[in-house]
Design brief:
It is a single chain. The protein folds into two domains: 214 residues, P-loop containing nucleotide triphosphate hydrolases (Rossmann fold, 3-Layer(aba) Sandwich), CATH 3.40.50.300; 106 residues, Magnesium chelatase subunit I, C-Terminal domain (Helicase, Ruva Protein, domain 3), CATH 1.10.8.80. The protein is α/β, with parallel strands linked by helices and 339 residues long. The protein contains 15 helices and eleven strands. The longest helix has 18 residues. The chain is globular. Helix 10 crosses helix 12, helix 12 crosses helix 13 and helix 13 runs antiparallel to helix 15.
């Protein structure tokens, strides 16, 4: 049961986190909020944006604000799985006997920045799958548990696709959010240049410890979700399935396939965090709708008609939400696609 005191502490802690992150990040409020929500909820984040918009800086600042150990891997085509997970090395004792000792890789940290993750080969990308989902690493048949909390914050450049390896759907599904970092406006660009003239280093200070972060996560789990909101969330996810019984007209027209059950889990988990951040004891329809974009945009696959018509994933999500339209009572019954 979440008390008034717990609610207030949660809200104040989040305000402190945003205040410190604001020292390093200019603008990009939605992206910053998305990263914080995902980290409290215990999920991984995929950051997409052109070079120079602050993706790496944001991840480094998050490490400082949450006071967590931070590792960075620059993904390249020649990177091997052992460069990520670690490997067994041979050591000799005083008698000259050879023994194996596990040398942990950079994945053994709390925050892992996977920079330009789509530049590594599928074999190396898959080395992160187990770590992202189970928070364990298996090397030569032996499993090693990663320390909690553990997050993978990956970046990718949407422009340069030559020599890259698109992330497989199984790995994309492991990211709780896909956040798109846009180019700053004139005022934001001016402020960025002025700040970086003084120092290129991050100046944010610790505002939340690992213990406090895990406590906030447990607090968020206690937030109730009304039955109607829960049903609406399931309907929203099921409406993205173009060949499903409850497909919306938009998904049937523009999607090849829809979101997985992980999308429904992510929506409810993160909506609870967002509700607490806003000082509320319950999840609202607006929480679900606003989080649908980062949760669904990388989990739905556009078909040929959408690509040729330049229809974006966000536009598809917007139209599906408009079809469900919870504020006008059309949450019940579920939409059924006429075949």
């Amino acid at each position: 049961m979440v008390t008034e005191e717990m609610l207030q502490q949660f809200k104040e802690k989040c305000e402190g986190i945003y205040k410190e992150l604001g020292k390093d990040m200019i603008g990009q409020q939605d992206v910053v909020e998305g990263c914080v929500i995902a980290m409290i909820a215990g999920g991984n984040v995929l950051l997409e944006g052109v070079p120079g918009v602050g993706k790496t800086r944001l991840v480094r600042s998050l490490g400082k604000v949450f006071n967590l150990p931070f590792s960075r891997i620059q993904f390249t085509p020649d990177l091997m799985p052992a460069d990520v997970t670690g490997t067994n090395i041979i050591e000799k004792d005083k008698e000259g006997n050879s023994t194996f000792r596990f040398q942990p890789g950079p994945v053994f940290t709390n925050i892992l920045l996977a920079d330009e993750i789509n530049r590594a080969t599928p074999k190396t990308q898959s080395a992160l799958l187990e770590a992202m989902q189970e928070h364990t690493v298996t090397v030569m048949g032996e499993s090693y548990k990663l320390e909690e909390p553990f997050f993978v914050l990956a970046t990718q450049n949407p422009i340069e696709q030559d020599g890259t390896y698109p992330l497989p759907e199984a790995q994309m599904d492991r990211f709780m959010f896909k956040l798109v970092i846009t180019y700053p406006n004139m005022d934001e660009l001016l402020e960025i240049v002025n700040i970086t003239q003084k120092t290129m280093e991050e100046i944010a200070e610790a505002a939340c410890s690992a213990k406090e972060l895990l406590l906030m996560r447990e607090t968020a789990k206690e937030i109730p979700v009304a039955e109607d909101v829960m049903k609406y969330t399931m309907k929203l996810v099921m409406a993205t399935q173009p060949s499903g019984e409850y497909a919306s007209e938009t998904s049937a027209k523009y999607l090849r396939y829809g979101a997985s059950p992980r999308a429904a889990q992510a929506l409810i988990t993160t909506a609870k965090v967002k509700a607490l951040m806003n000082g509320r004891y319950n999840v609202s329809y607006d929480d679900i709708n606003s989080l649908a974009y980062p949760v669904l945009r990388h989990r739905i696959k556009l078909n040929f008609e959408a690509v040729t018509g330049k229809v974006t994933a966000d536009k598809v999500i917007e139209d599906i939400i408009a079809e469900l339209n919870p504020k006008q009572g059309s949450v019940l019954p579920l939409l059924k696609h006429k075949k």
